[in-house]
Amino acid sequence: KPVIAIVGRPNVGKSTIFNRIVGERISIVEDISGVTRDRIYSQAEWLGKEFNLIDTGGIDLGDEPFLDQIKYQAEIAMEEADVIIFITNSRDSVTDADENVAKILYRTKKPVLLAVNKVDNPDMRAEIFDFYTLGLGEPYPISGSHGLGIGDLLDAAIGHFPEEEEEEYDDSVIKFSLIGRPNVGKSSIINAMLGEERVIVSSVAGTTRDAIDTQFTDNEGTEFVMIDTAGMRKRGKVYESTEKYSVMRALRAIERSDVVLVVLNAEEGIREQDKKVAGYAHEAGKGVIIVVNKWDTLDKDNNTVKDFERDIRSEFAYLSYAPIVFVSAVTKQRLNKLPEIIKRVSENQRLRIQSSVLNDVILDAVAMNPTPTDKGKRLRIFYATQVAIKPPTFVVFVNDPEMMHFSYSRFLENRIRDTFVFEGTPIRILTRQRK
Ligand code: GDP
Fold first, then answer.
1. Domains, the chain
2. Is 0.90 topped by the overall pTM?
3. Least enclosed by CB within 10 Å: which of 277, 386, 398, 407?
4. What is the atom index within ligand 1 of the atom nearest the CA of 327?
């Protein structure tokens, strides 16, 4: 999907505009463990065109001086985005910081749209004229808080999207990526996996953008593609300067993957960033496997595995379906299990359940735990059917979708999971009114 990046100095209203563009998507996604809180990256859509939106202002560049921060943010946008939206603020007119950002953006060949925020009513439109001096073309007057002008801006933005890229692999090829903080051992695991005697590495291709994909076949002839998070093999100064930036790289890889291996470092335990990235994989409907690396470094007793599993289950509550594997890239412990687990999860993602069988499960579930009622009215479930795979997605037709509470939907999900093997994959349950 194309990427739109928002840049601009602090307090011009970037996050308000981000939320406007993302719209209700944020609220429809369940916010468990703060996955959707203070997000800087989200999927969004305009006129049927889907894209990813990054608020570079949210990228935490640590203690860098102010001007360096906005400079890096602009550089990240230039590197990552297909279209850049540069936001300024009519109340402050053109500031030195705006000019600085503009100067950096001159260097890019990518389309830059200049938006002037806080133009809250048509009488204020005259105030945008100063902004022509930034030399970035016609300014777009917008109001993040009133939602004005955003449509025109997005029309222009999607007009600049590149031609759609074809996915370059066959559907039978299993695409996976390893994500995790720097130094958890992603590269070591990959090298060890690819170094396995029975693995045939058939090609290393520079494909989409700067990602480096590695294709290989296991001893059963299953084809895999390892999608590199790019940052792993190509590290530049900006890349290293921020962990959040590597999050964005990871998100790119997640998007192209069927299965995501969330790599944790056994020595360090679970960090906030691990949860964030794993949360994105979950939201994107990808298969997820939790890989605890550096297992060799721990002094273990009978409870080590159990304790670690318990921590993972409580910290990653929304990933209750994800298998956990304890490995060591150094001793190669259990590394040979990874391909078969990836394969299993990928198969589960593509599972299709017959409607008749599914409806039996739903009927049993309802008999066991009656549907909620409200003011004497009961939620009625008419039937359910699977409408998609990757991730398996079910539509439940009911008399009144409002009455399908999260807890009941979760109950149905659990019943479905108890009956069918959906290990490693999120499943989605949508509720629709029967016409
Ligand atoms: P990446 O940044 O996630 O790709 O991490 P690397 O693969 O570069 O590994 C970071 C460091 O951890 C290197 O010094 C590795 O040798 C070390 N390392 C990786 N895996 C293991 C492991 O399983 N056990 C131990 N003890 N060290 C590991």
1. 3-159 (3.40.50.300), 174-349 (3.40.50.300), 355-433 (3.30.300.20)
2. no
3. 407
4. 23
